[in-house]
Specification:
heterodimer; A: 113 residues; mainly beta; 7-stranded mixed beta sheet; 11 strands; 58% strand; B: mainly beta
């Protein structure tokens, strides 16, 4: 079983809809992250969380919100989806020190029509 | 100018070749350097993680950091078709939490 599980793996939806992407992990890591990946732009950080009560904006948080429901669960919501939010979305985790590397899930492919 | 520059490729090599993948960066304060491998429809998988300058070897993979030139490399010896993937370089500063800055990835194809 994957250590970092993302659901759904694929989603097609319409402009204006609210979307939730979910991430759960069994690695026991405290830190969790949401990224989006676009061709030619690479991975960009949307939000990150160091524990349930510690949530921080990344470089491209506008139009997104997150919820850390438990140490192992971190959800990303698109409040009112727009076509330029079509991308690959990845959740990542890391252990609770600043030097630990991040480990990624297999992503959600989101298309907004 | 991007903080991290990486040629997107694609790079095609015959099986058994030595592959050299590279990134340049502009921020001389970067201290931690990573290489991730990403297969199609999968998430990035950590391959190599190094601190500061020098070489690190793991099986067929060698990571090299040249801080004076602001240049990092990943070498793959005896390349295999299973090495066909996109390779992302990544780096970050030291001192407290620092975000990771990723390259856009180089797509590698190893031809049998």
């Amino acid at each position: 079983d994957a250590d970092v599980t993302q659901t759904p793996r694929n989603r097609i939806t319409k402009t204006g809809k609210r979307i939730m992407l979910e991430c759960s992990q069994t690695k026991g890591h405290d830190r969790m992250y949401w990224y989006r990946q676009d061709p030619g732009l690479g991975l960009r950080l949307i939000y990150y969380s160091f524990d349930v009560k510690d949530i921080n904006k990344g470089e491209i948080s506008d139009g997104y919100s997150v919820s850390r429901q438990a140490q192992a669960k971190f959800s990303l919501s698109l409040e009112s989806a727009i076509p330029n939010q079509t991308a690959l979305y990845f959740c990542a985790t890391s252990a609770g020190t600043d030097i630990e590397p991040q480990h990624f899930g297999d992503g959600t492919r989101l298309s907004i029509l | 100018q991007k903080e991290v520059e990486q040629d997107p490729g694609p790079l095609s090599v015959p099986e058994g070749a030595i592959v050299s993948l590279n990134c340049t960066y502009s921020n001389s304060a970067f201290q931690y350097f990573m290489w991730y491998r990403q297969y199609s429809r999968k998430g990035p998988e950590l391959l190599m993680y190094t601190y500061s300058s020098g070489n690190k070897e793991d099986g067929r993979f060698t990571a090299q950091v040249d801080k004076s030139s602001k240049y990092i490399s990943l070498f793959i010896r005896d390349s295999q078709p299973s090495d066909s993937a996109t390779y992302l370089c990544a780096m970050k500063l030291s001192g407290g939490y620092q975000k990771v800055t990723f390259g856009i990835g180089t797509k590698l194809q190893v031809i049998p």
